[in-house]
Design brief:
With 1002 residues, the chain is of the alpha+beta class. It contains 16 helices and 71 strands. The strands form 18 sheets. Strands 56-55-54-57-68-69-70 form a seven-stranded mixed sheet. A hairpin with a 4-residue loop joins strand 7 and strand 8. The chain is globular, with a radius of gyration of 29 Å. It starts with a helix and ends in a 26-residue tail after the last strand. This is Amidohydrolase.
Length: 1002
Amino acid sequence: MELSRRELLTRTGQAAAVATAASTLTVGTAQAESGTRVKLTQGTNISVSRSRDGKWLAIDLITAIWVLPATGGEARKLTDELQDATLPSFGPGGQIAFQSYRDGNYHLYVIGLDGRGLRQLTQGRYDHREPAFSPDGKHLAFVSDRAGSYGVHLLELATGTITQLTGVPDEAAAPQWSRDGKRIIFTVGNAAVDTVTLDGKRERLVTAPTGTQLFGAAFGPGDQPGYTRMRPGQAELVLGTTAVVTGEDVFGFAPIWDGDSVLYTADGRIRSRANGSVKDIPFEATVPVRTNRRPHRTRNLTGGAVKGIAGPVVSSDGKIAFRALNALYVLSDGKATKLTDNRYFDSDPDFSPDGKKIVYASDRTGVAQLWVRDLASGEDEQYAPAPHAQTTPRFSPDGTKVAYLDQDGQVWITDRQARRQVTPTLFQPGRPTWSKDGGTVALAAVKPFSRRFREGTSQILSIDLTSGELKYTEPMPFRSIATRGDDGPVWSPDGRHIAFVVESVAWVVPVDAKGTFLGEPRQVTREVTDSLAWHGDDALVYLNNGRIRKSTLDGRVTTIRHGLTWRKPAKPERRVIRVGAYWDGEAHELQRNVDIVVENGTIREIRPHRGKADVDASELTAIPGLIDAHNHWHLRGRQWGARQGNVWLAYGITTVRSPGDPVYQMIETREALAAGTLTGPRFYATGEAVDGSRVYYNFMRPTLSRAQLDLELRRAHELGYDMIKTYVRLPVELQRAAVRRSRVPLSSHYLYPAANIGMDGMEHVGATNRLGYSHTITRQGKAYQDVVALFTASGMSVTPTLFQSRALYDNDKSLVTDERTRVLYPSWEYERYLADANAQGTRAGSSSRAILRGWVEFALKVHRGGGFVITGTDAPLDSPATATHQNLRALVEYGFTPREALITATRNPAKWLGLPLGAIKPGATADIAFVRGNPLADVKTAANVEQVMVGGVLHRVPDLLEPYRRQPSALTTTAALDPLPSAENKHWWHEPEWAERVCCDH
């Protein structure tokens, strides 16, 4: 049944956008390119293959296949940018096999040495990777996740027949053949080296020592295993048990052995080693880059109709509740009535079955807890308090229970007396929904394809509350629920249907009492659709680019008016601030004893002390407010609540930029900050990143076609995104289409071909990548001439997000123990942060000074080469606010001057945003941090913030802390019952986002 259903949907094109990206693509060899050209003489994380006659080498430089003479020389490009090709393997007759991401999944191709005869060998929705020609040229060994995890497979080239050699629970990688063609060697989970014969007989050859990882296995002399053994600060090419290459940045791809000589890649070069001597094989490759980055000025919001409608729900009598402008509202008969007072983070309302009450989450006690509001009397009472966060609540159909999530993604069910855990920890799940009989709860949850590559599809996870069974259901074959937030699943009141969003439009499917599909999903809307709620049993309410819309199941659409508007508050009064010193954002030395005159939120004058000052900061130094250019306000926004804005300000960060957030949570927060109903920094952001066929984070948009891309861009433009981020699994062709159609800057995790197709920036030094490794930074944290040259020539920004800066906590934990951190962090966040900091410098520490040094040296080369480095942290995956300062300290630790480091957090990101920020000079916006000390002499003093000004509005740090100093020290909580069997953790992917300590996730 599953296969016929998949075939049916594929053939009839029932997705919103019927044309897949693959159907619009063409294949061919490299075409002539125009524009500025950059000569590359080194390659970061390149692999190499040698032709059977020994005359030619193939390399995968910046995601293209190139060939050059075996003695070195000018490289010739075989594949175009759209092919996104890597890992070449020479076969007979000059044929080269490689992996390509052209159609949104990895597939195997072959091409001739002359660039002709390009042919695709595998198809479908599974990934096929890392091909290796057999010695007789009749087969390709490769790995694929087609069997439930990465296993070794054989492809018979004459017939196309695929045979599986290893399977679940393997996570195999990089197969290579023995000389006699009877065995295949490969790595398993970076922890072992195995071989398998063609009849499936396995043997383990190597197990990684503690603290090391193994990459790129191949058979060496005497059939000994050759491989790369890595630990932070060390990469060795090993033969058997002997390290034959040390002291080099070996890239970890399969070496090519010929007797006692070996060909490999390291230190940005192709190398040959024989008899103890090393020879570099030089190459030159010339590539085009676009240097005219688009001019852009970020639009500052001034007011208008409210578009930030977050989490709408509908009562049985047709009222609508939602969050906007940092308050809860109920909409009835065209009038929106405000329920809460903007003082705290009140979110995710849900109506009781009779419509007389709402349950919602509020952090008024310091952390998110459940509250119930009687709509007639206006009285609030706490509902079933717990020692953890309580978010995204939903009433049961009989009104006696509430399902909710905690801060770790566990689902709980509570009444007023007791609570019970019903799922294990889930990775960023969606909001729960109840079946009509109250016997099943369902929500969106990710199900990865393999452990090796974490992406998967966002599916419906149902919990049988009687049996304790967990069950995953695809909304449609190989497709994801749009986001794991408010895009479903949502059960209809009569229990007969479930609604969800796939590919940005709404679908409805008939179900039984347990949520089992009884038919095929049917498309209901054809416009951008977000945040579904049922309006009775025959209509859906949803958000469409800032409007509340209603659609009957037969497609009749109307707009529901709410009438809410907002405007920026009046400009603050004129103030004269007396400071002991200030840094204007450019000078090499502080200027001393001045008054800063601020009018209407703008710096009007800087003058010597004169007359009376309104603010005495004569013992402090004024510096431009810091800008964190990469964080995700709502990745844990419900758990942090209103305190998140306070912690940014308390550390002098007056502007933040998010390259990915749940769209309506982002819009609501952006409007609330601009309207002055929420305290915090300026907030520039985008909604969900535009992703491809598979997703991981809950705020990625799986985008499978040009038609759907149009919907995504329409949402972005109508909601006024400040930028667009394209994510890991989006094919190059759709990335290029986004560039051509976008009105705002774009960023991604890729340097090339992004530098040529017009992307404006790259996030992280070397981020999560569909390859599983980066072409901008090696596993040892180093970048080479190709990367630095492309950044400096193109003008693309790079946001390093120095996760490894945690390593500096081994000798300075002052940011961790600071009162601002202790008071403003939620307790569970602080406990994790403290434990992580205490672990640095020990065997349990997860960060490396050696890798951090490489990252900073890479950023420094780009910066001093005229490139564009902007500071960002990826908070809250790194610590909000304190990580900004830890990043600055890391930059200085390994080569930046304090001034250079501060410029990456002031002038440079202000230039990216196109705003008069990041400076203290007449005409600049009055965003100022007042610190004790001289940050140009000691960058650590930039964290010594005592006052901070945003647009002329002054905040004292004690005032930012005060609401959270006064919180009750303990709550009387409801009893915890024994967890249901469904709460047992049986799947490796059931974990919170903070559990994975890897570089550069977002």
